[in-house]
């Protein structure tokens, strides 16, 4: 029994580990920065959890070799686990990598038990020696200048830190410098200003530095660089781009520098800075010439010099000079023009009885030169002849529509080629120099096959980034010719497949959408996303359009064996993001305003020469430095999750930190504010893919005001916007009682040389917004003037990045909101600033286009801009964003105000202050002003043509606005809240809802201003109290009979009157009359308030405060008691608004009041008038709800007269 028990136990153990999942291969890829674990089949987590980390899959011993914070993700639906190695890994070739037991299971066999520990030995690729690159920064320094020697540009680190050995070519020539160099093994060494000054004295000095870099594979390389001190080189000129570049004849690039005066106080001497900025000039010459020629750099950004291949083919030298002494040289090579590129799309197989087309329309020349196309054909074998093709016949060959041998396409008619193999040759001739290139396309004509053509948006072997967004991915599509004579079935279905080129393995299938083409063919597009998660770094792939069969083949060979038709695109290479980098920032004390040299190294990418670097700063909460046990320190804590590309993401960097600067070089000199910061560097490759590295930066002590002022002065003298903004950002939090004029002066200097790029404008917005916090209105006015200058520059140089500056406009509003003096002036300045921002936005909006921008701050600001063709607007009117003005009104404006305009577009701008009323200071002399709250949403309408405001005075405009939430407080008993429109009266400085009509729509209100009084229009929606109608009382039978009798008498009287007046006086209102909103009359003077009434004969506008007591007496209990009399009181002879029946939960809106506004065209017979007068109620209560034409509304919407006039006792209503 015991033996049997043992046998059973042993058998169960074997069964428990029976699994179809195994680890086939473990390999380094992407320059030893990435590890790929290839499984025998698709795998998933055994616990069915979608979330996982490296720690939940890999063994602890394996993780210990993968560096700090490695990251894992599944590729190819779980067939491959990608491990991006962390900081400073130790994993090597032939090391063992293992998974945890019982955590993985085969996806296709989920019923199987979890896999045991799976392990494999690491395989690796080849490596070459590193390339050492050394730079002294600056190369030529003034005395008392800190110099940085950096080998951070060196390549070949392969994901691990390079080690450096420093020396001088001439030993013992500079003992103080040698001591510093010999003590360092880092790639960057700082030579303090005092050491440089001690070495050079007060004169000039020069020495050559050597660095030898060694990678973790034991391979080394050396480089040298001169270090010079020149007492006349003031200010020193620093390169901020790589100093050697090569471009195509059609290409362009940019060199840039930074200039910084040396601060003598660093060496204990008195500071004596100049009062003017350093002037930077640029020159160029050929490599073998001695004469320098002036180069026209950017007037706006003098520290940047854009150059292009227009200089001509050859080697060029460029020089940036600051005040004639400090210089920096650059090398530019312009290569020969590339030949034109012939690209042919067409089928590789075709049946005899079916025609096909060869398409070379995507061929191109790098300079866009005109191209000529010449086709020829050659066949193989006895039957392979092209003589039957009519394309080459007399008189036919010159056709360019595809039927000849010239042109971008070449059409082969059905039945003109016998079975065989054919070679079509395209001669592509460039018109400018008559140079030719040749391309061949092979077609096999068979008795039965389907012609398929695959078109791709990439050329052969082009790289596609595995981080490409949907809008960045190239398009792929195909054409299929099915049906009789073309070898296929019209019922056949088609699919796309991603195929690994090396193995011809089909990795995944992609659904397709099929539509009929213009010539009977089928157009087949991929219907789902491009399978980026199937791309492995460095591998090559093709997209294949394939006929679907009963089963899905695993390889192209299997598809061919099944008789499935297919065609492949050109191959492309999968390009991975940069990897393996780290940030170097010493954890030492430093003073704010002083420079901190931050460098990054160790990156690997397929195109190292074209990496760019972006530097950021984040709060360091939750992070600390701890002893790593090896004499160094490491960061304790978790770095934040940051999204670098998607600005809409909640984790986007702009919502968590600050941008510090951009550089083509892997280092940057930064100014940091007091405290400790988390620094991040993002490396971006030429395809836009990004990767990041973090480090806890140095502890910055709080400086004295004099140090901050000195740092700001030095930055302004650089004439470099990035340096100024960086220093200003660091100084904002340490200024204390420093005069804000220094800050504004620095911001003005930065704006003058600001690069109008996305990051440049982001940085300007961030710094300006920070400067506006807790500032005075006077400072806000100065900063708004700086912003206005940037807006003007953006009108001349349009950029969508202008959107970032909307936060500055809102920040100015936040400062002005606290202002109690000059409120009218501040509102005018704010309106002007918003208009100037709108002009900057309109500059990049295309014709018939529009954009809606929203500030990131709360409560919020929105700016909507629409651009329309002016002739179209004159013909059709203008309608955008809820605003509309008729063509008739625009034509009237054209006659009077736009005749001198020369541009052909007109812009609409709607500036909406969300829950932030910029006119909250309005006087309370009007009824509407009592109820327009400080948190009201206000929309300002502006029209512009040729950047000039269009004056809307005396024109009718309409605006649809969303309904705000009804007031949360309950209205007085017997009253309800009614939504109404109001516009701001700039003459009376109050809100006015007279002469307005408004129609309530589902969740919106449409406001119409029949005649605008001001140059622009400001709308809002507010809630005002209105009386509920009296409740209906049940009538007795007798009373009902009396009412019926009265009704019949009324009908008889009406019939009698109509009979006397004739048919023409019988008026039946139309549907449109029944539902139209009615214009309210001019508001008479009198008391204000829901139940106020006018004194008989009162006219004109009372002075502020008049009739306040009377208004208060007439107001319902609980109503606002502050108001003075205004325009909205009812005039004698007008009737109170008629209310809709039945109270509503949120708000009540009255039906149209047929007694207000222009009288209806209805004549009343005197006899009926006398008869009806007996039924007029003398009570001082609102009239009973009325039925009739005015009580209906289209689609359930309630139309209402503005009825700004408060309710008053009914009087004589005879019209």
TrEMBL record:
Q: Please state what the protein is called.
A: PKD/REJ-like domain-containing protein
**What is the annotated signal peptide range for this record?**
1-18
Stretches for region Disordered? 1060-1215
Mind listing the UniProt keywords for this protein, alphabetically?
Membrane, Signal, Transmembrane, Transmembrane helix
| Source superkingdom | Eukaryota
Transmembrane domains' residue ranges: 1035-1057
Q: Where is the composition biased (Low complexity)?
A: 1080-1102, 1118-1133, 1176-1206
Does the record bear Translocase in its keywords?
no
Basic and acidic residues bias locations: 1103-1117, 1160-1172
